[in-house]
């Protein structure tokens, strides 16, 4: 029998710093909820909006796989390895913090917002050499199917991380139904609804809801609205 957990959008932690409006699915910074610490190795899922010309000053990370998925606008990244890059909708960015890295992230535009997901995953190897990568994906490849955007394998589709995790994104027409098979025994799937209404294993979910399921090998997903957009995070449940 599968186990499930649902996190409705309105139950997330919230911090509005003026320049940054952030919703936290799991405990982060001043939001502490003992029942919302992580889902397996998925530690942070922040839904961030950054005001024009503002951003995160230089700050350090270590021993964490940090994934950024831009949803709107242009986010400029600068780090202690010498990388200077801009990520936009359709891009996926990965930073393996490993032994330690410092970086900053800014909205480079003066007239529009940046919206992006910041996701942290516990690594399966500690103190690796820090690494940065980003790729641009063809969003048309996720129409009525899941496009893999992250995996453990450098030769596979998408970016890669130091963890037995697979991320996929899909955009679905109303009433379209599909199955997703979990990639690895012992993994669970955390679904984050980016837009629209979706039913997963009989549970109705709406925009920005989160739904975790484990102790199963596949899940059935049906779109209940046009252009329903979903991020699936297939992750080990044991840290």
Automatic annotation (TrEMBL):
Organism, scientific name: Arcicella aurantiaca
Superkingdom to which the source organism belongs: Bacteria
Cofactor binding, note field: Binds 1 Fe cation per subunit.
Domain Pirin N-terminal span(s) in chain numbering: 11-121
Keywords, sorted A to Z: Iron, Metal-binding
GO molecular function: metal ion binding
UniProt-annotated binding residues for Fe cation: 59, 61, 103, 105
SUPFAM superfamilies: RmlC-like cupins
The protein's name: Pirin N-terminal domain-containing protein
